[in-house]
Write a structure and sequence with these properties.
With about 425 residues, chain A is of the alpha+beta class. Helix content of chain A is about 45%, strand content about 20%. Chain B is globular. The chains are: A alpha+beta (about 425), B alpha+beta (about 600), C alpha+beta (about 650). Chain C: InterPro entries: RMC1 (IPR040371), RMC1_C (IPR009755), RMC1_N (IPR049040).
Chain lengths: ~425, ~600, ~650
């Protein structure tokens, strides 16, 4: 009886609106650039949304500076990382000295409709967002920028503030649109690389394939090999690979999936000048080698920015589900001949390899995949606990991944085990 | 009026028995000339208090606030006369946020020797006596083990730019909306007024965006902001506690202030003068806040918001309760017996308890008040005190006296609603004293010892905290918890704090608003902890790190069984009651929905 | 130039008095003995065998010119043919009458072409009308006919090692009839015909015994026919045709060796290689009939290597006249006085020398560019190991550094042979275990030829030196090592840990830790204790190595003690104890060991924990928390009291 009476209420309860976290603003500033009164605007190197009123921009930058200054009074070396307010979350990150990146995220909220036409009451879920996750997202923004543009500092040296602001505009205008804040989770924090499970023999085959190609095309400096969007081999150091992997899997590959999706792999290529038939094709660079006046240009990436600071061409070549990245010093200029040579050399071998892997994979299905969490995992046990708390709202499988890989960070091993126990109970 | 002041100085020492207030007055002055002037100037301070009551005294509930408003106004005007000097530049500071300005205002205050509030005055005296007696005995559980607070002087004139100052584990600041410093745990408010200025700037900046600042996080610190009416409280902590917990602590700080001034009067003061320097009213009471903060760091009862009562043979506890029950007088609402800083028993006025329960939070404030100052060790104290959770706007009158001078470990605390009831209540105390003497209860209490985890007889179990929910007539009950003494390997200060931090961490996780947990098994580096919350209890246990999951679960079942067995000894199962209402006019009592009417007013 | 000679005459040849008007020289292929018969034997017969021991000297009465003279196997009986009718015998068995006796061939008016010993007392007479198989009875000084076969014979060839007798029959003589002899029995094998370049009209004997040789190659018996160039046939030059002669079944033409030239030739077989000497060009070429996979019934082969002369041979001056100052005489090679015998014998009667021919492998390295082919070639040779290894090291360094695919094929070829041997070993041992009864007969222990190049060979002679070499790009080093490991895996050969260590050291040396980590992740470097220890040692340079090593030890599941030691050494006393417990050893471990470790950490909390743990163990095991005398924990007990007080000690009651 009572239930019957209440049920309509519940129904109305259903109508509350859920709002996922969303990007309010994103800006980069350098306090050294506009030290004097009235010059504050000069500090701002990039601001999204750009259409915002100038003073508003200056105000928000001012707040960040104030917060950072304030926390320095208590620990000069460890300034603020984030600011929590009722309505939003601000994440601060200083990737290079005096260069600050700030991301403002609106807390998720629930809009509860009120009866008799009162405006709906809005409830902010202040603790939903985890600093660690969005902190990582922000750092990723920087790493991604750095991957394709190099450091802020270099840009300054090269072309002063103008160049820097241009680069920032050009990059972040597009990149910010690809941020999916609502779907950020644990993996963003670890910057996890998913490795493809493979038997030893096939792996060795891939090894010798890579080595042979690198020997015969000596221009190639680094190679990375992926299958089904999972990494199998990387000649790049891990930190660079992690961000490159992020780019490949979240941006480049999705844009080129069509042929694979269309049942059997990409259309078989007509025999080219004595080539074997193969499925190979470039994902970066020239759309087609046939077209004589198609420009031979590949995206540039920057790696090892800490020491050697290398600028490289990024060639991504794919056959069926196997993709290879060849990285070549940007000093070399790549001719059509080179591309053809590469195509005819790699295409057939890669095609064979791809089907080998596919075969092997189907045989050893039982080997389950794993997310390798950065070996140089800098998470404190506390943070991990927080992340695992987040996990509890996530799929159990991820929990399992954590357990397997977290053991790599040995100093905290005991915690690591504890974490897993912990996740069992919470999931 | 003058008379009420007399009471406050009355009965400095027993033997003189019934002596004239004036004598006493003089007698204590020689100890401390400036209180003379202090007490003179105290008049307005007192008037705030007493008037507040005078108005609400006649049973007329509704009329209370309105008329008191009027009174207030006229009264404060009179005060302005000697505040003029300050007004001149203070009025121009309506939005004073910049550091310099804040400093000005601060220095502007320095001249003001005008600290004449009732409690404050009383404490001023206690501070003096302390030099002689020092702190001993009368501190709550763990307080004596907790970092014993160095004499406030030390902290006050710390160099706020030194690393030592930065290194403090937890800073707490209280400031007014106008950015005026009110309290800082370390370093003098003056020296910090610029920092506090910045804090206020941040708060109001965010506010201007129709938003509220909650906290700032860095790798080292968590900074939590809390606004309570005209006050802003800030905690800067590197303890790794959750934001929630820090906020919880700030609320205690706020309540402690309220307990001395009442929320209403604080509001009134700042309504009238946005940039009023509240330190004038709190002068001398920093010590209480210091004490509170030290307790917060080392006493889990705050974390669990439950009372830790002294384990005692139920027969003895009942006997003592009976003694308290017998010694009553009209308007007596709570009789509380404390030994070694732990609750022995509490007897409550039946009707009052039916209206509102005594929150552990309030009891903690009382305990802290007693513990924070050894003043009470000398004879009897009669002081107005507000219990914020009970009613933030009104005063009780607390009679505090130790029953076993000079060792001062057993303390009697009687709360009355009648500010004139000093002698009546003092009389109750004598009765209680006699009765206890007759039963030789003091000796028995002196024998009482905290228990040890080994008594549970579970290997690997090192320590635990147990907070039951399934106590009889729960809604009236004072929430309690039990916990063994921290023995080796947790006997050192550092280890105690470490363990408490681990508990805090688990507690934070269990009570996380967004992702609460029911059960945590946490293998830490040096111990394994298991926290478990059910509808019946909340339990935190600490095991040897070599315990296995199976055996720990096993251990817990054993532990629970043991506690059930010891229940009578560990908890106050059925808190005794008495009836002090002269006229049982309870039937006509106003319904409870009105917040200002918290029952006991209507009794008067 | 010098390293271009891939053929040479072996050292210290057999020397004998050179042929002359007074001295006739005979050679017996069966015993490889040279007979120098001076004036019909009256002035002495000197027999020189391959080794000095078997050289004999004796006299015999001169009963006319000697046609043929041979000892039976083991120099028991000497047979001498002086007439076309009969053969004379002389007993050489000690304490047997040493008197000559003679035997006439039983076939009327047949003339004896020659004879051959098939055993110490069995002999075959070959006459123009057939063969007669006798047993010699030295005591009775008579012969007993075992078997005979009448057939027209032009000439014959006997192959001692297989004791097969080949008779040339028919008018043209190109139909060959083989017979096989075995202790007292004679079996006729299926006859076959040699294809002549031109069939002469009218028919006349057109196959001379000089053009036929018999030898075993790769343990098969072949009849080699030197087919001379003829204008009519459009063949560019002469060729050697090989007929495979099986014990049972028909003889088939299987291989043709193209000589691409004309002139005088002679054949040898050395180390399963067919060596063809060409007199006019003074060069020799070699053929390996296995070098190309048999695709059709008749395989045509080209010379493996370009023609080269035999290495010049110097004859030291002999006799008292000889003085060191005088340079030795360079002896004439390919001289017309040379006669060549199977398989590898060259005799110069004029100079009185018998040489064994020998193939030198070292020069082939430079003569054979195709490394794959070179490997196939070398792997079939007798003394190939060092050469092969030098090929490997050579292909990894210097400018003529091989491309990875080449390296890969070479490794694969090596490992294939290696694997075959391992399998043979395996099956053999299995058979042995399963009971020698039947196996002993059916299996014989597989011989390990030099061609079996195992991992330690590769490691010591090639890889270790290669990786230490300066100026080799580390990328290439790793690539090579991975290729080798790949190849081993491909043939399911378990890789030895020292190869992994090589990989790891190289990676570490170039700070390629991330690569290393990936390898370990995919278990390319299989788990082993030595490897785990190596990883441990890397911790200082690469911290995660420590954990990797621990995980490896754990996976090994045979290294529990090591794990405990490692953890203790890292002061991870709790971890160690937890682990011991997890493997159920916690009741037996030494309390003192752990307490010591805990003490060293100077972490009193830890010490407390460990101490309690063992107190409880004592309680559980002995009903009393105290430690036994034997455990030597007194000092620790004292320390515990001092740290936590007497009362902290566990009470026997508390259970």
């Amino acid at each position: 009886m009572l239930c019957v009476f209440f049920s309509p209420r519940m129904a109305s309860g259903m109508q509350e609106k859920q709002y996922t976290p969303s990007l309010l603003s994103f800006f980069i500033y350098n306090p050294k650039f506009g030290p004097r009164e009235g010059e504050e605007e000069k500090k701002i190197l990039f601001y999204h949304p750009s259409e915002l009123d100038k003073n508003e921009k200056i105000r928000s930058v001012g707040l960040c500076e104030a917060i950072v200054q304030f926390t320095r009074t208590f620990c000069p070396t460890k300034p603020a990382k984030s600011l929590h307010t009722q309505k939003n979350r601000q994440i601060f990150y200083e990737p290079e000295e005096h260069f600050w990146m700030v991301m403002v995220v609106r807390n998720p909220m629930i809009e509860k409709p009120n009866k008799d036409g009162k405006p709906p009451t809005i409830e902010y879920q202040e603790d939903e967002i985890l600093d660690s996750v969005y902190g990582a997202v922000l750092q990723q923004c920087y790493s991604m920028y750095k991957l394709f543009n190099g450091t802020f500092g270099r840009a300054m040296e090269a072309g002063g503030v103008e160049m820097l602001t241009q680069k920032l505009e050009k990059f972040f205008y597009r990149y910010l649109q690809t941020l999916h804040l609502q779907s950020c989770d644990l993996l963003d924090v670890f910057g996890g690389i998913s490795f493809f499970p493979l038997d030893k023999m096939t792996y060795l085959k891939i090894q010798s394939f890579v080595n042979r190609v690198e020997q015969s095309l000596s221009l190639i400096k680094y190679t990375a090999f992926l299958y089904n969007d999972q990494l199998i081999w990387s000649g790049l150091e891990q930190d660079d690979m992690r961000i490159l992997y992020k780019y490949l899997t979240t941006s480049l590959f999705p844009r080129h999936t069509e042929p694979e999706l269309a049942g059997r792999d990409s259309p078989l290529r007509p025999e080219v000048a004595g080539n074997l038939l193969h499925y190979g094709r470039f994902l970066t660079g020239p759309a087609s080698l046939k077209d004589p006046d198609a420009k031979i240009r590949f995206p540039r990436i920057f790696v090892n920015t800490e020491d050697s600071y290398e600028e490289l061409h990024l060639i991504v070549y794919k056959a069926m589900s196997a993709a290879v990245c060849f990285m070549i010093s940007a000093a070399e200029d790549l001719t059509r001949e080179f591309c053809e040579q590469l195509d005819s050399l790699v295409g057939p071998q890669l095609t064979l390899l791809a089907s080998d892997i596919c075969e092997q994979y189907n045989i050893n299905r039982r080997i389950s995949g794993s997310v390798l969490i950065s070996l140089t995992l800098r998470q404190t046990p506390r943070k991990c606990l927080a992340l695992l708390a987040l996990l509890s709202s996530n799929k159990h499988t991820i929990g399992a991944h954590i357990k397997r890989n977290i053991c790599y960070f040995d100093s905290q091993r005991s915690q690591a085990c504890a974490l897993f126990q912990y996740s069992i109970y919470t999931i | 009026m003058f008379y009420s002041r007399g009471v406050c100085w009355s009965s400095g020492c027993e033997k003189q028995g019934d002596v004239s207030p004036v004598e006493n007055h003089i007698h204590c002055d020689e100890g401390q000339p400036q209180t003379e002037e202090g007490s003179e100037a105290a008049c307005p301070g007192i008037s705030i208090v007493t008037d507040g009551f005078a108005d609400s005294a006649p049973g007329d509930v509704s009329g209370g606030p309105a008329s008191c408003e009027g009174e207030e106004h006229t009264h404060l005007d009179s005060q302005d006369t000697h505040l003029d000097s300050e007004d001149a530049h203070l009025d121009s500071e309506h939005t004073h946020l910049s550091a310099e300005q804040a400093l000005d205002s601060a220095s502007g205050e320095e001249s003001q020797e005008d600290s004449g509030e009732f409690v404050a005055a009383m404490l001023a005296r206690s501070r003096l006596e302390e030099q002689g007696l020092g702190v001993k005995g009368g501190s709550p559980p763990l307080a004596d083990t907790g970092p014993s607070p160095p004499p406030p002087g030390l902290h006050r004139d710390e160099d706020v730019t030194a690393d030592a100052w930065r290194a403090h584990r937890k800073h707490v600041f209280v400031l007014s909306e106008a950015g005026k410093p009110i309290y800082s745990r370390y370093g003098s408010e003056e020296a910090l007024s610029s920092t506090m200025g910045v804090m206020m700037a941040l708060v109001s900046f965010v506010q201007s965006g129709d938003n509220t600042i909650r906290s700032v996080h860095s790798d080292q610190h968590t900074v939590v902001f809390m606004q309570q009416g005209p006050l802003v409280l800030v905690s800067v902590s590197s303890s790794g506690q959750s934001e929630q917990q820090l906020r919880h602590e700030l609320r205690y700080v706020y309540n402690q202030i309220v307990s001395m001034l009442t929320q209403a009067s604080i509001a009134r003061i700042f309504q009238h003068k946005k940039n009023y320097d509240l330190r004038r009213l709190l002068a001398g009471s920093e010590k209480i806040l210091d004490g509170l903060l030290d307790l917060l760091d080392c006493d889990p009862s705050f974390l669990l918001s439950a009372v830790h009562c002294m384990p005692l043979a139920s027969s003895l506890r009942d006997a003592l309760s009976h003694v308290l029950q017998k010694a009553i007088t009209p308007n007596l609402v709570f009789s509380i017996l404390i030994a070694q800083g732990q609750l022995v028993t509490i007897v409550q006025e039946r009707t009052v308890i039916e209206d509102a329960r005594l929150e552990p939070a309030d009891l903690h404030l009382l305990l802290n008040l007693i513990g924070a100052s050894s003043a009470f060790q000398a004879g009897e104290i009669w002081t107005p005190i507000c219990l914020p959770s009970f009613n933030p706007d009104c005063y009780f009158y607390a009679y505090i006296s130790y029953l076993d001078p000079p060792s001062c470990s057993v303390c009697l605390l009687l709360l009355s609603t009648d500010k004139e009831a000093f002698y009546a209540v003092a009389e109750c105390k004598r009765k209680i004293e006699e009765a206890m003497l007759a039963q030789n209860a003091l000796a028995a209490l002196a024998k009482a010892r905290p228990y040890s985890a080994t008594q549970v007889g579970v290997s690997d179990l090192r320590h635990f905290m147990y907070k039951p929910f399934d106590v009889p007539d729960n809604h009236r009950q004072l929430t309690q918890f039990t916990s063994p003494e921290m023995e080796s390997p947790y006997s050192s200060e550092a280890e105690k704090t470490r363990l408490l931090d681990l508990y805090r961490d688990l507690h934070g996780r269990i009570h996380s608003t967004s992702r609460p947990l029911k059960l945590i098994y946490h293998v830490a580096e040096r111990e394994t902890l298991l926290a478990w919350v059910t509808s019946k209890f909340e339990l935190y246990t600490c095991f040897s790190p070599l315990v296995t999951k199976a055996s720990s679960i096993n251990a817990i079942t054993k532990l629970l069984r043991w506690i059930k067995k010891e229940e009578e000894r560990l908890f106050i199962r059925y808190p005794p009651k008495y009836s002090t209402t002269p006229n049982p006019s309870r039937t006509r009592k106003a319904p409870e929905h009105d917040a200002t009417d918290n029952g006991f007013l209507s009794l008067l | 130039m010098n390293e271009e000679y891939y053929l040479e005459l072996r050292e210290n040849p057999v020397q004998f008095e050179h042929a002359s008007s007074v001295n006739n020289v005979f050679f017996d292929e069966a015993n490889k003995q040279v007979f120098a018969v001076r004036s019909g034997g009256a002035t002495g017969v000197v027999v020189k065998g391959p080794d000095d021991k078997s050289s004999v000297a004796f006299r015999m009465d001169d009963k006319g010119e000697v046609k043929c003279i041979k000892f039976s196997i083991g120099n028991k009986i000497l047979a001498v043919q002086r007439t076309t009718k009969s053969v004379d015998f002389i007993n050489f068995i000690p304490d047997f009458p040493h008197i000559e006796f003679s035997h006439e061939c039983k076939t009327k008016n047949a003339s004896v072409l020659g004879f051959c010993w098939t055993n110490w007392n069995e002999i075959v007479f070959v006459t123009d009308q057939g063969i007669e198989f006798y047993q010699v009875l030295p005591d009775k000084r008579s012969l007993k006919l075992l078997k005979s076969q009448s057939i027209n014979v032009n000439w014959y060839i006997y192959c001692p090692e297989t004791s097969v007798l080949l008779l040339s029959t028919t008018v043209q003589g190109n139909v060959l009839q083989p017979f096989a002899f075995k202790s007292g029995t004679m079996s006729k094998m299926s006859k076959f015909e040699i294809e002549l370049p031109v069939v002469p009209k009218p028919a006349k004997l057109s196959l001379s015994e000089r053009d036929i040789a018999v030898a075993t190659i790769y343990s098969d018996l072949y009849v080699m026919y030197l087919k001379h160039h003829s204008r009519t046939t459009n063949s560019p030059g002469a060729e050697v045709v090989l007929y495979h002669l099986p014990r049972e079944g028909a003889c088939k033409k299987t291989h043709v060796l193209k000589l691409n030239t004309t002139g005088k030739f002679a054949l040898n077989v050395v180390d399963n290689l067919v060596v063809v000497h060409h007199q006019s060009s003074l060069t020799s070429i070699i053929f390996d009939i296995k070098l190309q996979e048999p695709d059709c019934p008749v395989n045509v082969h080209q010379a493996v290597l370009p023609g080269r002369s035999i290495h010049p041979f110097k004859i030291p001056r002999t006799g008292p006249a000889a003085a060191p100052s005088q340079a030795p005489v360079i002896c004439e090679l390919y001289s017309s006085t040379w006669s060549v015998f199977q398989p590898d014998i060259i005799i110069s009667a004029s100079e009185g020398y018998l040489w064994y021919l020998k193939v030198k492998l070292q020069p082939t390295l430079n003569l054979l560019q195709d490394k794959g082919k070179l490997m196939d070639f070398l792997l079939r040779r007798r003394d190939c190991k060092m050469v092969i290894l030098s090929v490997c090291s050579q292909m990894l360094v210097g400018e003529e550094k091989g491309s990875l695919p080449v390296v890969a094929t070479v490794f694969d070829k090596l490992n294939q042979v290696y694997k075959e041997y391992l399998d043979a070993e395996q099956t053999y041992t299995v058979a042995m275990e399963s009971g020698p009864s039947r196996s002993s007969s059916s299996y014989k222990r597989p011989v390990r030829t030099q061609a079996v190049i195992d991992q330690s060979d590769m490691y010591t002679h090639v890889l270790s030196t290669f990786t230490e070499r300066k100026g080799v790009c580390h990328k290439f080093i790793i690539a090579v090592l991975m290729e080798y490991i790949r190849s081993l895996n491909q043939y399911q050969i378990t890789v030895q840990h020292y190869l992994y260590e090589l990989v790891i050291k190289t990676l570490v040396h170039h700070n390629l830790f991330y690569m290393l980590h990936q390898f370990l992740q995919y278990h390319v470097l299989s788990d082993s204790k030595p490897l785990a220890c190596l990883l441990l040692s890397l911790e200082s340079t690469y911290p995660p190595a420590h954990q990797l090593s621990l995980d490896m030890l754990k996976r090994l599941s045979t290294a529990n003690d090591e794990i405990v030691e490692v953890l203790l050494s890292k002061q991870q006393v709790l971890g160690a104890l937890r682990f011991v417990r997890s493997v159920g050893g916690h009741d037996n471990v030494s309390a003192r060991k752990f307490l010591d470790a805990a003490r060293q950490t100077s972490d009193s909390m830890l010490f407390y924990t460990i101490f309690r743990f063992f107190e409880q163990r004592n309680l559980r095991l002995r009903g009393n928390p105290g430690f036994n005398q034997g455990e030597h924990c007194e000092e620790h007990v004292a320390y515990f009291k001092q740290m936590f007080g007497e009362q902290a000690l566990m009470k026997p009651a508390a259970v």
